[in-house]
């Protein structure tokens, strides 16, 4: 299963890239899960895509709850490893796993009980779309414990500095999903054609397989951090409070982001089912940049956490600027791709001519903000590594919240539906500028404090 990647010494670029590449690979695996579903569901039709897009908001919202133990695991484990405090790292592992299972069972139960009211929120004037969305939501909810647990197990290993194992295990899950999707959605061979129900079943089978492999791999390890975790032991409140304190701002930001997006979806629904499907597919394509930046953000969080725990501030600063350069190049590349190749890319997932026409405009408008989105997400990881999870949440919640009035205002002009897309793109640009400026001010203040201590010391 590999040892920890000690991030407190050696070449900074090499250490960051070595950790980041498997994490980005894991992000691409998740992206590929979603795109595989879209690829096959797109063959069923726009209604099926719109149904998954609608139900998908609640799996998206789930990530807000996942982030609480996930961020707690990444930051708590990485800082404990940086201080070489193995016992404390084990405590964080045990408590994050206990918390995530509890949250998964609670959230999954709520989705099943209130399924009709939750899907009804979107006021979709299409009975077929509504019923398909409800079916998909119920099946996914029964596998919610796996959906919650896998990112936290990934976060624990990332914080430990071992990003290779999560990548390999999540990759196995992707292969299972890729094989099952066409069989269960379209009904190939002995399998009946189940449509979106097949997509949901395939996803649950793949994610449960990933959880089992994770647990088997961790049990096999004889290392001191993963042995004798005593998962059934009663949790202590001080560690639970610490995990919630670290993860709650990011979880709250994610929850509100999803809720704001639901209101945006209600605005989009005025133009019918096709634009709903377009936004769903378009956001999956756009995920190329934000999931990659999210992978690099996680790597930077572990890097900053270990060096902050070891009190090596100079490496924290150099690591941040190194990461920023790398994701900036990537962000500019995605911008060019979405603007100049929007048609060919979109038509792969939803070939209907009307949908492609809408999709090209969506990708071109959102393409303009990709660089800023990448640097904002990466900077959030740097803040998280320091244990300062509030600043990214303040910026994210404020700017995402402003999308709703901006979308209402801009869509009421000659821009129409495109005004909604512009409200999203402009807010992403502002988030990137503000959060990077905030972190750079923090770095300058810290550097000034260090130089003052040297002079006085």
In short:
The chain is mainly α and about 450 residues long.
Structural class: mainly alpha
List SSEs in N-to-C order.
HHHHHHHHHHHHHHHHH
Shape descriptor reads globular
What's the oligomerization state?
A: single chain
First-to-last CA distance: 44 Å
**Count of alpha and pi helical runs:** 17
Number of DSSP-assigned strands? 0
How confident is the prediction overall: mean pLDDT? 85
Sheet with the most strands, sense and barrel status: none
Number of domains: 1
- Share in β-strands: under 5%
**Helical residues, percent:** over 70%
Describe the protein's architecture and organization:
The protein has 457 residues and is mainly alpha-helical. It has one domain. 83% of the residues lie in helices and 0% in strands. The chain has helices at residues 12-41, 46-82, 86-113, 115-120, 127-142, 144-160, 164-187, 196-220, 237-268, 273-309, 313-340, 342-349, 353-367, 370-385, 390-401, 403-411, 417-456. It is globular, with a radius of gyration of 22 Å.
Give the SSE map.
Elements (H helix, E strand, L loop, with lengths): L11 H30 L4 H37 L3 H28 L1 H6 L6 H16 L1 H17 L3 H24 L8 H25 L16 H32 L4 H37 L3 H28 L1 H8 L3 H15 L2 H16 L4 H12 L1 H9 L5 H40 L1
Helix pairs in contact: 1-7, 1-10, 2-3, 2-5, 2-6, 2-9, 2-10, 3-5, 3-6, 5-8, 6-7, 6-8, 6-10, 7-8, 9-15, 9-16, 10-11, 10-13, 10-14, 11-13, 11-14, 12-13, 13-17, 14-17, 15-17, 16-17
Keywords:
457 residues; mainly alpha; 17 helices; 83% helix; globular
